[in-house]
């Protein structure tokens, strides 16, 4: 055989299955969210996750599984990606099962990697959180922590989450932790006493607190430990010795008024704090006052989360006023509280002091039209660079739509807009969709689900996003869109630069449903749909000079 024959390689063609498109990944997150928050045999045994918690877990699972599968794919670049897809699917199913078995209270942040900052050269992490949640005894604790006992080790970050320590295991771990506490900078002891009797859990906390007292930490995560005031005070020695914290996570910890007061009293300095997360606690208005005191003493905060903490109007006002001291804030999450209009107006007065805001989450705060418009008017002036805006579940209706639309027109950097679970109907949908149609080139996600609009509103939102480069998700689910309207939406998307892949699930759409006309004297009847659709072409949203 001549050399030419030997060098000849037949030309082959194959279809690459990896990586999945961004819209496919978003659809997977949506499906996982539904599965995690739907009644099942697991929810009856372990408890049902709320939609927000399910969504946070779904996003975390997808990102972790995608990263793992992508690394696998890079090792076989000549393959079609089928093995990466199989790994992606297998790991996703496995992690979903783990979340379901843990039940509610397992948030994305609490299970995130121990640090949110990139690993520096020379850093080493000891993470024993992998695998199933399990009780560990003294001998196993010694074995798991044995890397910390090696001379000259350079461990700076530890994560003990998802392992339940009893007193014997804690006594075994204590001396080991004390021997390395001067080199530690980040400690994650979230969810580390699950299933233990209260007295034993408190003893374990005290042992860890004593062992870590005096360490100079920048990151501390004590979430998912059902602390209450007793638990906070069990960590007294550790907390009182921290003057350099940059990130503090106290989520799903039963932080009541007394617990919030104890936390505020014990930490000597929060001046360097950049991240403070209080999600899913029982803080209430009274506890919010003490959280507000911590916030006032944290001028360098960049990310503040106080969602699902039962805070009402008075606490919302106190918290909103305190946030005025945080002039470097970039991310603000106050979702799922009972603020009401007055707290919304108080927040609007604070927002001009927060010029660096990039993400703001204000869903389910009962802001109504008045509070929402006050907030948006402030954001329009102080943070036109906003990238994420969530205002779901605030009773925004068609009467508030013109003012909302005017504000949205000024926010040309938006990447994600959520207006779900409001009362826009067709009239409001037309106006808001028109405000998004021109510009907004960076918009990637629009969620206007459950807004009681019909065929006209659906068409308008489809037109608004059909030609935006990089757009990946339009959620119009849970509305009253006729079958003909759905077909029209699909035709609009097909005719634009984006494909049908951007259209989210429609499993909760009710094609036979009609909006409630109560409190909406100006609502158009069904016969006026086409007339309204034609008029929307002439709707103009005034922009500030």
From TrEMBL:
GO terms for cellular component: cytoplasm; nucleus. Its main location: cytoplasm. InterPro entries: Leu-rich_rpt, LRR_dom_sf, RanGAP1/2, WPP_dom, WPP_sf. The keyword Nucleus applies. Residues 507-532 have a biased composition (Acidic residues). Residues 14-108 form the WPP domain. Residues 535-545 have a biased composition (Polar residues). Keywords: Cytoplasm, Nucleus. The keyword Transcription does not apply. It is found in: Cytoplasm; Nucleus. Residues 502-545 are annotated as: Disordered. This is WPP domain-containing protein. It comes from Urochloa decumbens.
């Amino acid at each position: 055989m001549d050399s030419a024959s030997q060098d000849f390689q037949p030309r082959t063609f194959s279809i690459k299955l990896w990586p999945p498109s961004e819209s496919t990944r978003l659809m997977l997150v949506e499906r996982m969210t539904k599965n995690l928050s739907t009644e099942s045999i697991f929810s009856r045994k372990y408890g049902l996750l709320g939609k927000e918690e399910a969504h946070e877990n779904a996003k975390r699972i997808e990102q972790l599984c995608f990263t793992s599968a992508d690394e696998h794919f890079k090792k076989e670049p000549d393959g079609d990606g089928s093995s990466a897809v199989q790994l992606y699917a297998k790991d996703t199913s496995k992690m979903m099962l783990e979340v379901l078995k843990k039940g509610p209270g397992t948030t994305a942040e609490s299970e995130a990697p121990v640090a949110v900052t990139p690993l520096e050269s020379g850093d080493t992490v000891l993470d024993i959180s992998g695998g199933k949640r399990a009780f560990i005894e003294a001998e196993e604790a010694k074995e798991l922590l044995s890397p910390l006992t090696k001379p000259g080790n350079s461990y700076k970050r530890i994560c003990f989450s998802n392992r339940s320590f009893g007193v014997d295991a804690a006594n075994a771990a204590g001396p080991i932790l004390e021997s390395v506490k001067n080199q530690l900078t980040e400690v994650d002891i979230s969810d580390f006493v699950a299933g233990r009797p209260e007295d034993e859990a408190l003893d374990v906390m005290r042992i860890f607190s004593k062992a870590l007292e005096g360490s100079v930490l920048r990151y501390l995560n004590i979430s998912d430990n059902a602390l209450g005031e007793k638990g906070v005070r069990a960590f007294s020695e550790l907390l009182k010795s921290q003057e350099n914290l940059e990130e503090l996570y106290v989520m799903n910890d039963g932080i009541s008024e007394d617990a919030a007061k104890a936390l505020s009293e014990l930490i000597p300095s929060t001046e360097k704090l950049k991240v403070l997360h209080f999600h899913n606690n029982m803080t209430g208005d009274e506890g919010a006052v003490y959280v507000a005191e911590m916030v006032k003493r944290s001028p360098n905060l960049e990310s503040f989360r106080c969602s699902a903490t039962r805070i009402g109007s008075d606490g919302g006002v106190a918290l909103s006023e305190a946030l005025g001291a945080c002039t470097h804030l970039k991310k603000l999450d106050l979702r799922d509280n009972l603020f009401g209009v007055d707290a919304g107006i108080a927040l609007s007065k604070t927002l001009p002091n927060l010029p660096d805001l990039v993400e703001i989450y204000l869903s389910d705060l009962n802001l109504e039209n008045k509070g929402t418009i006050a907030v948006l008017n402030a954001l329009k002036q102080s943070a036109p660079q906003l990238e994420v805006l969530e205002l779901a579940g605030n009773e925004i209706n068609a009467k508030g739509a013109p003012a909302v639309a005017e504000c949205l027109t000024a926010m040309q950097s938006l990447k994600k807009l959520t207006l779900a679970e409001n009362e826009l109907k067709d009239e409001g949908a037309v106006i808001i969709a028109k405000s998004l149609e021109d510009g907004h080139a960076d918009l990637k996600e629009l969620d206007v689900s459950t807004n009681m609009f019909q065929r006209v509103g659906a068409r308008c939102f489809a037109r608004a996003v059909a030609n935006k480069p990089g757009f990946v998700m339009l959620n119009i689910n849970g509305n009253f869109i006729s079958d003909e309207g759905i077909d029209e939406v699909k035709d609009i998307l097909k005719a634009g630069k984006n494909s049908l892949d951007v259209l989210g699930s429609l499993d909760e759409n009710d094609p036979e449903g009609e909006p409630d006309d109560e409190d909406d004297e100006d609502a158009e009847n069904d016969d006026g749909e086409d007339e309204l659709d034609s008029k929307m072409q002439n709707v103009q949203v005034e922009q500030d000079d």
